[in-house]
User: What shape does this take?
Amino acid sequence: MKITQKVESKVKQTLKRIGLSKKEKILVALSGGKDSTTVAYLLKKFGYDIEGIHIDLKLGRYSEKCLKAVVELCSILDIHLHIYDTKKEMGGSMCYIRTGIQSAFKGKGLKNCAICGVMKKWILNREARNLKFDKIATGHNLDDEAQTFLLNIFKGSPKLSANSGPITRNVADKKFVTRIKPLFYILENDIREYTKANELPVVYEKCPCALDSYRINIRKFMNTLPDKNKENIIKNFDKIYDKINKLKDLRIEYCKKCGEPSRGSVCRRCELIGLVK
Ligand code: AMP
Ligand code: ZN
Assistant: This one.
């Protein structure tokens, strides 16, 4: 089967399973990388109502290339692009903010990607809600999800995967925008081939700050496995997901500092930011 047909039919199946409607307004989180670019391209091709959002992390040349690719993509797809400027909104580049947090948190081993991930999730939820979107779509693919699932097992806590899956479930809170992952069942290799075959504007290089050696080692290990094995990890996840999901802590509070939905009285973002103030 040709790559275009293979990827498109699988994504269509995933969207059907998620129950995504063409009446919903979807905000696609665009990093400039191959995965989120493919999500926007496909949702537009299938006739969904989408706009894009890019968080400009201000990480020098890398961020400039990402912004350029995202602007080009949105112009090709003829969709509106929202840009969140980290320097303007947060007072510095993500690298600057992260370094401050890490030095305040000395010795606690807070990983670059973990801090950036917390900030991005917080920004995306707030922007999507304020702009009145029904869903946020991200580019997480099968390899990302299989790695996370394994990592959580290695940490001894498969329950951490309760927030995973192609759609966030059980979080019926008016301040929380549902997130979807249309590429949840698509292999990274297939996405790379798809973007090349369709000549999409993509930055293929990795973020210069992605230095989490533990995750990199899991990724390297997983890349020694045949694709079938990676697919089987996700098949396992699907089989036990309902059980894991029941273990989830459904309590949602509102952060007393920023008002965003949170698991505790102060959200993780404010907890981290509070350290450097
Ligand atoms: P990552 O955690 O970097 O692998 O990114 C996972 C997903 O988050 C991507 O596929 C995008 O949908 C979204 N994302 C990552 N970085 C950005 C960014 N700078 N701006 C907007 N969305 C992003
Ligand atoms: Zn907060």
